[in-house]
TrEMBL record:
Keywords: Electron transport, Transport. Pfam families: ETF, ETF_alpha. This is Electron transfer flavoprotein alpha subunit. It comes from the Bacteria. Residues 60-224 form the Electron transfer flavoprotein alpha/beta-subunit N-terminal domain. It comes from Paraburkholderia graminis (strain ATCC 700544 / DSM 17151 / LMG 18924 / NCIMB 13744 / C4D1M). The lineage of its organism: Bacteria, Pseudomonadati, Pseudomonadota, Betaproteobacteria, Burkholderiales. The keyword Electron transport applies. Residues 249-325 form the Electron transfer flavoprotein alpha subunit C-terminal domain. One of its GO terms (molecular function) is electron transfer activity.
Length: 389
């Protein structure tokens, strides 16, 4: 008998501090869950309580890669999912591949294990699998959570499930302490099952804002990656550098984008080449014929996830803001301090976009003259991130 329940595929399922829509954590199927509804109206600046202070008898493990010392939004959502479904006797252990400088407690972790020898620029699937397996052996978690992404975590979760012969659920869009669910049949139906040993969570299934904090204890845990590498069958050939202009916007980590306030397109393109950034544009700039349609960013164009996104002369219509919602740092250059994009930006420069582009090109030319052509390329993405830190 087919027990798959049909639903509206456009209807999202989101877990929040109050639980799933229609399913409230602490009220249905969550033994020992803490009730924070009384504190939901508290002032945001008030200290958050610890999720649990009880002696742990169980463990949930969350594994994810760090990006320049931080977890991305998808990884934070996965950690929040584990913290939300954990009961008072379960501790949440975060295993980070790469250097991590964030606040693990604020993200909901009770313990933090950092493996700085791994990062997303290094392809070492065998070593990472061995490290995850060793951590599982040490902590014996009842469940292992990973983000189901295409940047290493999804592949690692599948490799581990296959190697450990563990039950696994992928592309999970709905979760609580008793079950997970995922879309099937071309996203027209929802399949549900009991919480498996390995959970690969889809993006945006969980609200990462938590009403509590974890213990945040940093654990010194050593993993001998060298011996595993010697026996591995995968060889890392390194990263192949390419012209940022040839990179798909969806894959670009640094983007400069032009709007109606950019009149000198060649000067803007020179700046993008100097900074080593991919080029994007608003719908208005594309409609005016300044850029091709494949450069358009927004609801009717591309959705991007850049670490740094600089918008020159873009007011920030709702459709454009939807296309940059997953960008890590947004810098806006605009004459209008009340433009919608200023509310989204981490840093807003109140200036004429064209004059700012010209000044940056002059600064780049001066840097080339001062340092020589060998050091002409400015590490502008690092400078931008430093200004926002």
């Amino acid at each position: 008998m087919n027990t798959i329940k049909r639903i509206d595929p456009r209807r999202p399922f989101t877990i929040t501090a109050d639980g799933l829509r229609r399913i409230t954590l602490g009220a249905i199927g969550v033994a020992g869950a803490l009730d924070f509804t009384a504190a939901s109206g508290a002032h945001r600046e008030q200290p958050k309580p610890r999720r649990t202070t009880a002696a742990p008898s169980h463990t949930m493990l969350v594994a994810a890669h760090a990006d320049r010392g931080a977890l991305d939004e998808h990884a934070r959502q996965t950690l929040a999912a584990a913290a939300l479904v954990a009961d008072a006797s379960t501790e949440v252990v975060l295993l980070v591949f790469g250097e991590f400088t964030g606040d693990a407690a604020a993200l909901g972790a009770d313990k933090l294990i950092e493996l700085p020898m791994f990062d997303r620029r290094k392809f070492a699937p065998v070593d990472e699998l061995n490290a995850l397996a060793a951590c599982v052996a040490a902590y014996a978690p009842v469940h292992v959570f990973l983000p189901d992404n295409a940047t290493g975590d999804g592949d690692l979760g599948r490799r581990y499930a296959a190697a450990a012969n563990a039950s696994v659920a992928t592309h999970v869009v709905e979760i609580d302490a008793s079950h997970v669910a995922a879309y099937v049949h071309a996203n027209t139906a929802l399949a549900s099952r009991a919480l498996p040993e390995v959970v690969l969570l889809a993006a945006n299934a969980v609200d990462p804002k938590l009403p509590f904090v974890g213990a945040g204890e940093r654990v010194v845990w050593r993993f001998d990656g060298e011996s595993a590498s010697a026996k591995g069958t995968v060889r890392d050939l390194g990263i192949e550098e390419m012209d940022a202009a040839q990179l798909a916007l969806e894959e670009a980590d640094f983007i400069v984008s032009a709007g109606n306030g950019v009149s000198d397109v060649p000067a803007f393109e020179r700046l993008a080449a100097t900074l080593g950034a991919a080029i994007g544009a608003s719908r208005v700039a594309v409609d005016d014929g300044k850029f091709t349609r494949d450069k358009q960013i927004g609801a009717t164009g591309k959705t991007v996830e850049a670490s740094v996104y600089i918008a020159f002369g873009i007011s920030g219509a709702v459709q454009h803001l939807q296309g940059i919602k997953d960008c890590r740092h947004v810098i806006a250059v605009n004459l209008d301090a009340s433009a919608p994009i200023a509310k989204r930006a981490n840093l807003t420069v109140i200036a004429d976009a064209q004059e700012t582009i010209a000044a940056l090109n002059d600064a780049a030319a001066a840097a080339r003259s001062a340092r020589g052509t060998g050091a002409a390329l400015l590490n502008s993405k690092a400078v931008a991130e430093g200004a926002l830190a």
